[in-house]
Write a structure and sequence with these properties.
The protein is 82% helix and 0% strand. The chain is an all-alpha fold. The protein has one domain: MFS general substrate transporter like domains (Growth Hormone, Chain: A), CATH 1.20.1250. It starts with 8 loop residues before the first helix and ends in a 15-residue tail after the last helix.
Amino acid sequence: MTVSAWRSRDFRRVWGASTSAALGSEIGELAMPVLALVWLGASAQELSWVRAATFLPYLLLTLWLGVLVDRYRRRPLLIGAETVNGLVLLTVAGLALAGWLTVPVLVVSTFVLGSMSVLHMLADFSFVPQIVTKSQLPDANARITATHSAIGIGGAGVGGALVQALTAPVAVGINGVGRVVAVLLLRRIDTIEEPPQPAQTSAWTQAKEGMSTLVRHRVVRALATEATLWNLGNELFMLALTVSIISARGDGPLVLGLVLMAGGVGAFTGASLSAKLTRRFGYGHSLIAALLLGNTAPLVGVLLARDTSLRSLLILACAFLLSGLGIGVANSQAVTVRQLTVPEHLRGRVNAAYRLLSWGALSVGALLAGLSIQALSTWPTAVIGTALMAISTLPVALSPVRRMRELDIPGS
């Protein structure tokens, strides 16, 4: 039986910190590309370097940071990650306003921000189950997913408006302030973490154990494959869409934010329906149906749109709405099953392996997007990306997930 996680004061603080960081991140998601393209005059290729640097840590550092998360208490790691994020973002904003920011400095800064995002994501994944009970965990994940989706509704629009009205550097600075608020909330958490057991093996052995556990786990392996293909395609799609809209329209930042808002509306609705659909149809059926909708809608939207006219933008907004709906249903389910089916002492490393594959694909996708836009232009690149997103459902549809009804399942 699911119990409300809101009863936990520490969960409310974690939720608040996550919300503050997510809101700042949503604003930064629009501010950083505009900062590169408009403020610094970067090319599409240079923008792809900035995007690749953001996600390169998922390839280079994820396994090792997963070991770190399993060896040390998670709350200090979360506080440290958000402190560094806040300092870097405020520094980038200051350099940009002073006229001292360059593309290489922005690339290095985004690499640091990406590294801290990896650390935060891994530590948060392992920390939430420690501050709520097992019966509260599904509700905790659903609340966090729904809140992030709601931020996607308002955050994208607010971010676009801030960039349009106050300039990209100011928006980046607001992102930094959000990270400072997250640090203050994390410092108020009362839960005393038990120190992890001393490592009996080397970091390399522990890292391999996380990857091998994921590979053997049929359900988590299928989810990781789907997420990897989806992220690779989505990065191609999003970079092509960003360059296309920002380059073609004077109101590009605001328009892009409004289009992305539609995805937030869908994701919030989907996250709100996730638990009900699981109870009604079972985990497997509802997840696969949600993935089919969420992963296919962007391809249909791009094929019908083809440009950045008002008609095409409305089509794309509808596609984002439907895609967000499907993704919102699936995300909270997927996070919960990964947490419940992996032993606590392995959570950090298995999640690190998962993120290495799924989010590491974003850095590859960013580099491929820059090359593809140069060779083929933006719209063919968007078609390729959304086609990859559409086929990413297959690994899950062909896995044991389709026969699952309960979230609390065996690990293999």
